User: Which sequence fits this backbone?
């Protein structure tokens, strides 16, 4: 059973998946920082100082209309945080797309190299030449 477990753990797919998860977790932190500290403030400047994290939609009116009490802190739909999440997703999707494209390009190149016909060994070529000469002499 231990041997089977070792075999399972060290299969290429499991190790690759583990590495991908670890790198993905680290990369998520980088993307979150990029979005929160670079992109969103830049968009805020372009949109006359709008702080996207502060964009909220007050739903207190809906609670009142339904006859429910409204908490002191209010009820809000955080549209700005949703926009932030969309930007993060788009960046992650772009990076994954570019990585897959690069991997496919490398694989295609490798397949093309494997498809090239291998040249015959020198001894086989020499034997073929000898055979041709022998056939010429018989004629």
Assistant:
């Amino acid at each position: 059973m231990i041997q089977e477990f070792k075999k399972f753990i060290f299969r290429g797919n499991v190790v690759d998946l583990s590495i991908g998860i670890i790198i993905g977790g680290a990369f998520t932190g980088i993307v979150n920082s990029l979005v929160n500290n670079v992109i969103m403030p830049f968009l805020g400047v372009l949109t006359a100082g709008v702080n996207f994290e502060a964009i909220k939609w007050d739903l207190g009116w809906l609670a009142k209309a339904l006859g429910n009490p409204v908490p002191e802190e209010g009820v809000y739909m955080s549209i700005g945080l949703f926009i932030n999440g969309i930007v993060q997703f788009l960046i992650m999707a772009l990076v994954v797309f570019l990585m897959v494209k690069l991997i496919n390009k490398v694989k295609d190149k490798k397949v093309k190299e494997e498809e090239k016909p291998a040249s015959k060994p020198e001894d086989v070529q020499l034997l073929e030449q000898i055979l041709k000469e022998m056939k010429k002499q018989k004629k």
